[in-house]
Write a structure and sequence with these properties.
heterodimer, A: 2 strands, 1% strand, B: 388 residues, alpha/beta, eight-stranded mixed beta sheet, 12 strands
């Protein structure tokens, strides 16, 4: 009962966060003059001559707080506006782009976290041995490589040099034709899962083939962070008194590491993993753009460049909700991993 | 009485960036069966390193260089002497916690914060007494099977459990057994032996004087007070009835009242469990209370070894004398202190390690390291001025 109360209280926290974030966005918007903001709605020269009517039509000359409340009322009615980059309402566009992002996150997040934890643990256990140096080099290299460079290099090698072995985009031409056709039921709109549910194995393999490169890019870059944190917290745990107690009890090295040290070392990794997961879900702009996967990051990058304000506002709202939720989940996991933490 | 532990010329070094720290330099002492030896000395003189070296728990950059740790594995009143330093790591794991165990200084850090007290005590049983646990489990299952009001499914699960217990008892844990133990429904015997081990830890905690042990086993260490935590640490150490208990400053981080309780507990348990104790402390008062023998350590060497009465009445080594003079007593207003500082063990003084601070030091002391010599009935000193 205490737990549900806690969760409800934390969920209610979303509201002030969203209000705060949207106010900040509107303050930034108010820095533009009405004419500048009207430019967003202009489509031809005739409208440009008649810019005052555009401003009138969209109420851009009203005080900024009036505009803000107008927007809030619209949002409460479930209307987030029209995204011109996606050429559909923002909410529809969001659900149109979300599956691709989820798919990428679904495949890369477990890989990043598991590989990071494994590398960090081994390098802590074999401290100052060759394997430790190797994984630290890997971490430093991954940490410092820009994702656009790594992504382009991988594309150059596996798409260019090996002529189309691992292509960009989310699906091949043939597969996407089948997916869009009538006799392919789109349960989740996530390609790999739908292909499995439809029992079209070749589509599943095709989708996987398109996933490999972006997943590798994200893994190499992001697993460095998890690895570093796991390594340092594992080293800290290995030096604690309870490790000597466990050894004095007669526990073998395996039990000491896997049972006593790891569970303690995992606690900080949980925080980072939650943050990482939120980052992956809110769209990995560069990776999605390079590999031309039409996900949230791809859309928002375009929206930001083309001043698609409703889409950007939608992105901000979504990120606000996402981060509050992930923080909540991280806190719950924290209480599970560390009995000293009490919620409430 | 036969000898239980005989440490001979134990040498342990730590290879740090500053240089080689010669933490132990030819430490030798004996512990008779059922006896209590106190190890006393200043901070950093190598008391803890001695205990960890006996347990072979010295990890890089530390290394046990030479010496012998001869332990008597008595079986049916037949002595069997083994040198612990020559055994394999796996063999040592069977000894640790089973024949020799250890109590630590800081109870709050010696307990793993993420496991319950019960789980941590039960681990000792699960590590060393699996056979007994399986036997108990098998007899319990037999009892339950004889009950008539069993459902059909219950009967099946019980017989599966019994088969697994028999498999475990028949031979050592084979690969097939381990594999089967990971399959749900087939691994119920693991839950059963865990439950039995937990029941055993309840009994043990009650023996330690913990109130409401049935509830305490489900508590996490941070929910207990310091005294209770130390009782849990002692329970972990004594779970498998070790022959030698090494208590590394078990009371130095506790309140005085709790200190007295813990000391009484250790004395009482020593009697009931017939264990020998190596009691490490910097507090001569505590040592006098608990021990029969005392060894005084200075900078990695033992300088004097005697029974408690002998040492307090007739201290011979200049360091011991200075140490005794620096204890506050009623009637003495000005306490004496020992001139100088504890030497840096990277470059220990040549000859006798105490000579730079010794008021009596002669030229010979700077050159020759004194051997420990018998000077009385129960009295050994390492000093050039005594013996011969």
């Amino acid at each position: 009962m205490k737990m549900t109360n806690y969760i409800i209280r934390r969920l209610l926290l979303i509201i002030p966060v969203l209000i705060g974030v949207s106010i900040i966005i509107f303050i930034i918007l108010s820095l533009f003059s009405p004419e500048q903001r009207a430019a967003v709605f202009v489509t031809d020269v005739k409208q440009l001559r008649n810019i005052q009517s555009v401003i009138k039509k969209h109420g851009l000359d009203a005080p900024i707080y009036v505009q803000y409340f107008r927007w809030i009322v619209e949002v409460l009615h479930g209307n987030l506006g029209w995204s011109k980059t996606a050429e559909r309402p923002v909410l529809d566009a969001f659900f149109y782009f979300l599956p691709n992002t989820i798919e990428l996150g679904l495949f890369s997040a477990p890989l990043i976290i598991l590989i990071g934890i494994y590398l960090g643990e081994t390098s802590a256990v074999y401290r100052d041995k060759p394997i430790d140096h190797l994984s630290r080099i890997f971490a430093i290299v991954g940490w410092s490589l820009p994702s656009f460079w790594l992504g382009l290099m991988l594309l150059m090698i596996f798409y260019g040099y090996f002529s189309g072995l691992l292509p960009p985009e989310a699906l091949g031409v043939q597969a996407s034709l089948v997916v869009k056709s009538g006799n392919f039921v789109r349960f989740t709109r996530i390609n790999t899962i739908d292909a499995l549910l439809n029992r079209r194995w070749w589509i599943f393999l095709d989708a996987l083939r398109h996933l490999i490169l972006p997943v590798i890019t994200l893994t190499i870059i992001d697993c460095a962070m998890v690895m570093r944190i796991m390594r340092s917290s594992m080293l800290e745990a290995m030096g604690k008194g309870y490790i000597i107690t466990a050894r004095a009890k007669g526990a073998d090295e395996r039990t000491v590491i896997k049972k006593h040290a790891r569970r303690n070392a995992m606690i900080p990794v949980v925080t980072v993993s939650g943050y990482l997961f939120a980052m992956l879900m809110s769209g990995v702009v560069i990776t999605e753009t390079i590999f031309d996967r039409k996900g949230l990051g791809w859309w928002w990058a375009r929206a930001a460049i083309q001043l698609d304000i409703p889409a950007v506002l939608g992105a901000v709202l979504f990120n606000g909700i996402l981060f509050v939720l992930t923080n909540l989940i991280v806190d719950l996991l924290y209480a599970y991993f560390d009995p000293r933490v009490r919620l409430g | 009485m036969s000898e239980l532990l005989n440490v001979q010329d134990l040498k342990t070094n730590f290879y740090t960036y500053e240089g080689v720290v010669k933490a132990l330099d030819e430490v030798s002492f004996k512990i008779e069966e059922g006896d209590t030896l106190g190890l006393v000395g200043e901070t950093g003189c190598g008391k803890s390193v001695t205990s960890l070296s006996i347990m072979r728990l010295i990890f890089p950059p530390g290394k046990i260089e030479s010496g012998k740790v001869i332990f008597n594995l008595k079986n049916n009143s037949k002595s069997r002497y083994v040198d612990l330093l020559k055994q394999t790591e796996h063999w040592m794991q069977m000894i640790r916690g089973n024949e020799i165990s250890m109590i630590f200084q800081e109870p709050s850090s010696a307990l793993n914060p993420v496991y319950t007290v019960g789980e941590q005590i039960a681990e000792s049983f699960l590590l060393h007494q699996k056979r007994q646990l399986y036997q108990e489990a098998a007899s319990k299952i037999d009892k339950e099977l004889t009950k008539k009001r069993n459902f059909f499914i219950q009967r099946i699960t019980l017989s599966i459990e019994k088969k697994m217990c028999q498999l475990a008892l028949k031979e050592k844990e084979t690969f097939i057994f381990k594999f089967l133990s990971h399959i749900p429904l087939l691994n119920m015997h693991l839950h059963r032996i865990k439950k039995i081990a937990l029941d055993k830890s309840v009994v043990l905690l009650r023996m330690m004087g913990v109130p409401n042990p049935e509830g305490v086993v489900y508590r996490y260490p941070h929910e207990l007070s310091g005294g209770m935590q130390q009782r849990v640490v002692i329970a972990i150490a004594l779970a498998c009835h070790p022959k030698l208990l090494i208590a590394d400053e078990p009371t130095s981080n506790l309140d005085v009242t709790i200190q007295a309780q813990i000391l009484d507990l250790i004395k009482e348990l020593k009697k009931t469990m017939k264990a020998s104790v190596l009691f490490i402390s910097h507090d001569l008062g505590v040592i006098a209370e608990v021990c029969r023998w005392v060894a005084v350590m200075y900078a990695g060497c033992i300088c004097e070894l005697a029974t408690v009465e002998e040492l307090f009445e007739n201290p011979l080594h200049p360091y011991t004398r200075a140490l005794l003079r620096s204890i506050p007593r009623p009637g003495i207003k000005n306490l004496e202190s020992i001139e100088g500082n504890v030497p840096n063990l990277v470059n220990p003084p040549s000859g006798c390690r105490f000579h730079p601070r010794c008021p009596k030091a002669k030229e010979k002391c700077t050159r020759v390291k004194p051997k420990i010599k018998k000077v009385g009935k129960d009295h050994f000193v390492a000093c050039h001025f005594y013996g011969d």
